[in-house]
Amino acid sequence: MLQWREKLRNLYLATMPAKKDDPDYVALRGHIPKELFRKFKLFCLEREIDNSQGLEDLLKEYFDWKDSQQKQDGAA
């Protein structure tokens, strides 16, 4: 059985080149606290996705939530 780091690396390598070469994607980089990073890595491992897909999923979910909150505030 693959170690979790090797498994994550394989997922990363399998998906990264397609997005890297896609003109509709851009790179995003930042610094976050270690504990938040650990939670993010666990989130990605549990879903068997790479960091890029995990970040995309979380950002989409956040902005969908934020848009729905703004619609509710506007309807009130």
Walkthrough of the structure:
The structure is a single chain. This protein has 76 residues and is mainly α. The chain has helices at residues 4-21, 34-47, 51-75. The termini are far apart. The model has no long low-confidence stretch (mean pLDDT 86).
The helix tally amounts to 3
Strand content: under 5%
Low-confidence stretches: none
* Rg: 16 Å
Distance between the termini: 53 Å
The secondary structure category is: mainly alpha
Largest sheet: none
Order of helices and strands: HHH
Helix content: over 70%
Number of strands: 0
Task: Based on Cα principal axes, name the global outline.
Answer: extended
- How confident overall, as mean pLDDT? 86
InterPro entries: Arc_rbn_hlx_hlx
How are the SSEs ordered, and which strands pair?
Layout: H1 4-21, H2 34-47, H3 51-75
Quick recap:
α2 packs across α3.
Keywords:
76 residues, mainly alpha, 3 helices, 75% helix, extended, Arc_rbn_hlx_hlx
